[in-house]
Inverse folding.
């Protein structure tokens, strides 16, 4: 279990890399930012950062408008 955007019971195979989580969720890399345990992770590092049990992930989508 991980905490995903404030939800305490998000079940996913652990451990998992951030890049794999993004892929599993069907998200577009170019439109989101991710914080892992309170630290923003640069996209170039998503393949190297591992999400473990009880970690906190926040995903923010960029929204355009005018």
């Amino acid at each position: 279990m991980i905490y995903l955007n404030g939800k305490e019971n998000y079940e996913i195979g652990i451990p998992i890399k951030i890049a794999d989580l993004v892929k599993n969720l069907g998200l577009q890399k170019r439109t989101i930012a991710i914080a892992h345990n309170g630290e923003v992770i640069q996209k170039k590092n998503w393949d190297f950062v591992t999400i473990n049990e009880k970690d906190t992930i926040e995903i923010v989508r960029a929204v355009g408008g005018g």
Summary: The chain has one helix and seven strands. The chain has a mean pLDDT of 92. Strands lie at 2-4, 7-10, 16-17, 32-36, 39-41, 50-51, 56-61.
